[in-house]
Amino acid sequence: MKNAITPIPTDEPILRVHDLCKYYPIYSKGLVKRKSGEVRACHKVTFDLRPGETLGLVGESGSGKTTTGRAILRAITPTSGSVLFHHNGKTVDLARMPAGELKPLRQKMQMIFQDPFGSLNPRMTVQQIVAEPLRIHRLAKGSELDDRVVQMLERVGVRPEYRTRYPHAFSGGQRQRIGIARALVMQPSLIVCDEAVSALDVSVQAQVVNLLAELQQEFGLTYLFIAHDLSVVKHICDRVAVMYAGRIVELADTEQLFGDPKHPYTKALLSAVPQPDPDVPMNFELGGEVADLTRLPPGCAFAPRCGECMDVCREKTPQLLTHEGRHVACHLYEG
Amino acid sequence: MSKTAQSNHTTQAAPVKTDSDTVLEVDGLRTYFRTHEGEVRAVDGVSFKMKRGSILAIVGESGCGKSVTAYSILRLIQPPGKIVGGRVTLRPVGEEPIEITALGEKDERLYHVRGGLAAMIFQEPMSALSPVHTVGNQIMEAIFIHQKVTKQQAQQLAEEMLSKVGIPNAAVRLKQYPHELSGGMRQRVVIAMALVCRPQLLIADEPTTALDVTIQAQIMQLMKGLQSELGTGVMLITHDLGVVAQLAEEVAVMYLGRIVEKGSMRTIIKKPRHPYTMALLQSLPSLHARNQKLPSIKGSVPALTRIPSGCPFHPRCEHAQAGRCDVGGPPPLEQLDPDGVGHEVACLRVHEIGPTLKAQAPS
Description:
Distance between the termini of chain A: 52 Å
Oligomer: heterodimer
Largest interface: A-B, 44 and 49 residues
Helix content of chain A: 25-40%
Structural class of chain B: alpha/beta
Number of helices of chain A: 9
Helix content of chain B: 25-40%
């Protein structure tokens, strides 16, 4: 593409998320609704995202991965915390920015969704779907608009002559490519991939994973890759953050995290993945259920399921601390 | 391919009718759907045998006909779908063999089969449970249909079964409604419901796909434990080759309504011979170094209304030969080693291409 984005040359993080929180109120039943508590969907999430890297965000359902992704993009307004986004030499705080000023920044941050069926408007043609963001931001019109749409579709592997068709005429993999084209046509620098390959069949999933990796190289994209499939995360992420009950419990380089997990939850999560090899038997020992965010225990949220639980774990919430160059929130590694 | 005696699994060379080792026999099953776009051959000539008390995995991508095969076995196919050919025979211990496909819609034996001799669990536990009945009532309903017991006895049975599937406080849980339980608990309830009448065959249609990975691991352990404890034969339908490698004893790989390869789990995972199976395994990210380009299968699964001529896989196959793989009908399953490992492959070029799956140990 002509004006492809070059990666920001410095090592300055493109995104700095600090103590990001998103709480949802719980109201009491009855005529007068009073706030009786809150669900801490995302609590004090802190991480940096360097330009051109892929950070994986993994965890079970309800762990706050999607909330984090959406709060960063201001698809939902965070309760507190800051999201410093580095763009054109300036740094802005997305979390505190007035909604009206966000629009020009939205060009630079896009999202790819999980469900290739639900995320495309069935009443719009592929041309309209991919052109819509360009029209909204008045970036192109007329033949230039068409050219950009055609170029983008070609790049993601959708035949441009099909662009007058509607989404229902495409397979799941093709639809996901259309969703990718819609995100990339804005030439963003940051893309949040929310379970972008989870709904696809294995053979098609490999195609889309390859495509995402190629596009990252080509356009210097930075990905926040939200997923529950650890084998895909291991394959494409540079670093991985593990979330449990709304908090990051471990953050490390992919090789470190998979090779030598520290947090007991990370260990359990990794051992739960069934390997496609009968000689690598599953060695999984974790009872209990995913934590209920409305009834979190005092102290560490993972304590009730943890095999290495100590007295302090039931009283004090562990902080995400640096331990041997990586970040772990567990009393085992404190002090 | 030289084969070492690596498996204790035996296959009868000729279909022996008095086969006491087989719990389920599917022979040439064909289920078609009549649609506006033409006849959809969802299942087109599927044959397999299931050994008593074993776990058979049916693997394939969406649209390959694995679920329709399962539904056909229990005669759960609704119009416009129809079983147009083939036979499904259930051989329960201590009872006459039942040819399920020959039974009338209202035949009492069909009700005896469904839920009694053979049970099914589904992917989405919430839609398999009634939201307006308690868990206990739903389990007891299954008991009352198939067994002559008093209410107290049924309650007792239901409670025992709930504890067996790992639900603490079973007596309390019996009085709860499905919305009060978590996803993993609901799937346990569904499993309890399916197993409470001690079926000899359990069909599990993607039982762990909707669950979190830690809960999936719990359910997998539970199923494996119950299967060996109760001696139930499990037909496991899945697309996850990791689940297959950890649970199954035998595997059948389906593509576009046909079985393209079947054999023991070890053979299929370690020494697959059909290009589709090989490509599926190759495309798994866990087998490759980080950031390496994943080998993928070109294109996507074609619509069932437009099944390619010749070998249905040829447009996506890297070994396809023009004028050979793309003409005529689909290739039949061929026994690769007559000496008894029971590895069957439906590929014309199987002897030419040889095994190309690199032996890679996942790290």
